[in-house]
Amino acid sequence: MVVDARDVASSIVAGIAQSIGGLTPPSVRFDWERGRSVVDYLWAHGHHPFGPFSRVPRLGQIQLDTVLRNTILSRIALAIETGRKISKKVSLFTDHFPGATQAQAVAVRLRQDLAELEGRVTTLAEHLHAHQLRQAVTVSEELVLRTSTLAQHAQAELANHEHRLTCCKPVFFFDPAHSSWLLLWRAAEWICVLLVGTMALLFAKGALSRYLVSRDVSTPFRPHFSSTALSATTRRSKITLWSRLFGPRQKQEKRY
Fold it and tell me: Which of 59, 70, 147, 177 is disulfide-compatible with 63, CB 3.0–4.6 A?
């Protein structure tokens, strides 16, 4: 851009409009075939501060509307990009804790906030379609502010819940108290206990019977009590066996 020292105000306005408002001089256009910008001075005249043939230090209504539209579009792009980053972080968080109900609840809340922002973008597009630029500028300011606040809130929420789920508290990904698998597991445990106990009793009974037979006991021991009177031989055998198994041990004298 060439600055005319005799008309500094026009050059300042043109520079601010180009750097902040995203305006281009009306005589400049981009040639897609050549891949560069070309200048056509036939469009250099008009109510604007650009070009060597115009000395008005103000922007026309077309340029003002263009500045507002560029501002709105840049804010929409920033909000959409921030929303995509938030959605990606939420997806990574839920993938890292696939079965955690706490993580799912946080993800649902954040996705609801993103849905509200999406509704604001739709409202903003309707204002642009109706050429209501003033209302669209107000809505775009609110959209950028809410998106930035949501990004900070989402970052803090995800970091806090990730710390809780990984470091501080044990988290069960499902509630086993209301699951049918718990009943099946308990039943299998009791069946195993009963089987082991039955096998142990049968083994003990067989071992005791073999011991009584090896000691020439006339009647084998049966693990039940009855009201009938036992024979004297069987009682003596049982008393002898009991004293041998559980009675005090006597020291045997060594004979030389």
Answer: 59
Distance CA 78, CA 61 (A): 26
Answer yes or no: are the C-beta atoms of 213 and 200 closer than 8 Å. no
Assigned token pair, 224: 């039940």
**Residue 223 contacts by C-beta under 8 Å, 6 or more apart in sequence?**
201, 205
Yes or no: say if 124 and 140 are a contact pair by the CB < 8 Å rule.
Answer: yes
| Whole-prediction pTM | 0.57
CA distances (Å), origin 38, targets 22, 49, 70, 93: 18, 19, 22, 49
The span from the first CA to the last CA of the chain, in angstroms, equals 129
Residues 174-202 have pLDDT tens digits of 555 555 666 777 788 888 888 888 888 88
Give Cβ neighbours of residue 31 (< 8 Å, ≥ 6 apart): 37, 38
The better pLDDT of the pair 212, 253 is held by: 212
As a whole number of angstroms, the distance between CA 200 and CA 209 comes to: 14
Strands (E), the chain: 28-31, 36-39
How many Å apart are CA 41 and CA 3, to the nearest integer? 17
